[in-house]
Design brief:
This protein is an all-alpha fold. It contains eleven helices and no strands.
């Protein structure tokens, strides 16, 4: 039976001194009896996770402004603003998910927190992409059915789209929590643990399908914008150069919207289709980070460019509406 370590150490020291042992031997004997204290492992933070967390913070702050503006202004209840609010809310939740993922990854590590976090991120980014598609559909309907767009049927259709896109996104986010994950079988993992390869494949193929649909709708929108600009030019006897400038501006706007969306999401979509968990994680971070930038750019493209939201923002910030906003009228290029 082992006695008190302190008593054993004292007895050993006294025995060595009584025997006249050299001080060096005494020190060596004492050192051999004192148990080595292993240093606590340092918390190593991945710089990529810091960048993602910073991106999530910026996303949350930026989109929270849009959500508050739309929520606190009863005049912003048209279908277009409901869809912009849905996009801002989805991006806001995505930013919060990135922040929570960073906190849980380093402070509260468990299977449950990993599943809940990845579920929130999947659901919010899915809702963001679906909201972009819904906005595209709304813009197409507002131009194609210009005379009947402002009707009760359009509002009902908008609510149906919102229910469908959020219901689908929530279901996709629940899949990892309900068991469709790779925590028990690492060989089925995708580039984003704990999502399975099949899960990311479904998400990627769905994105490609929605991107193709958005591309087709924007082509049709471009044709309508060009036709409207030509008709306005004829009615007001504008010069051909004015018609050309207006049309070019509208086409450029659509190209920027679609090009930004593709540049942000396409790298991660294609990479997740061809890669798996055996690939270096740096490739996952390098392709996922641009996808988060889309949620940073969305408020600039869809919200802060809108005249009514600009007026509401100016009222909140300075209590007045600049004359440049109050006198501005919409043109066919404002799509």
């Amino acid at each position: 039976m082992t006695g008190d370590p302190q008593a054993n150490l004292s007895g050993l020291l006294r025995g060595y001194l009584d025997a006249g042992a050299p001080v060096e031997n005494v020190s060596a004997a004492v050192s051999s009896q004192v148990p080595a204290v292993e240093p606590e492992p340092e918390l190593v933070v991945n710089p990529w996770d810091i960048v993602l967390c910073t991106s999530g913070t910026l996303i949350s702050c930026e989109n929270a402004i849009v959500v508050l503006i739309i929520f606190h202004n009863p005049s912003l209840r048209a279908p277009m603003f409901l869809l912009i609010g849905s996009l801002a809310l989805a991006d806001l939740l995505a930013g919060v998910g990135l922040i929570i993922n960073f906190v849980f990854a380093y402070l509260l590590q468990s299977e449950a927190t990993r599943l809940v976090t990845i579920g929130l991120i999947v659901a919010s980014f899915s809702a963001s992409v679906c909201s972009l598609l819904a906005i595209t559909v709304d813009r197409y309907l507002s131009l194609y059915y210009a005379l009947t767009y402002h009707s009760e049927r359009t509002v009902t259709f908008t609510y149906v789209m919102l229910i469908m896109l959020w219901g689908t996104s929530i279901c996709l986010g629940l899949l990892p929590i309900l068991g469709w994950n790779c925590l028990r079988d690492e060989s089925t993992c995708s580039v984003v643990r704990p999502l399975t390869k099949n899960n990311t494949a479904i998400l990627s193929i769905s994105f490609l399908f929605m991107f193709a649909l958005m591309l087709q709708l924007y082509i049709q929108i471009c044709k309508i914008v060009m036709r409207h600009a030509h008709q306005i030019a004829l009615q007001h006897h504008f010069l051909a150069t004015s018609h050309y400038v207006t049309t070019r501006k509208g086409v450029s706007t659509l190209a920027i919207i679609l090009g930004t969306f593709a540049a942000c999401w396409m790298p991660f979509t294609l990479y997740s289709l061809i890669a798996d968990y055996t690939y270096p994680s740096i490739y996952t971070y390098a392709t996922l980070l641009p996808a988060t930038y889309n949620s940073i750019i969305n408020p600039v493209i869809y919200a802060f460019r809108n005249q009514e939201i600009q007026k509401a923002l100016c009222l909140i910030c300075c209590g007045c509406i600049p004359s440049s906003l109050s006198q501005r009228t919409r043109s066919p290029s404002d799509v």
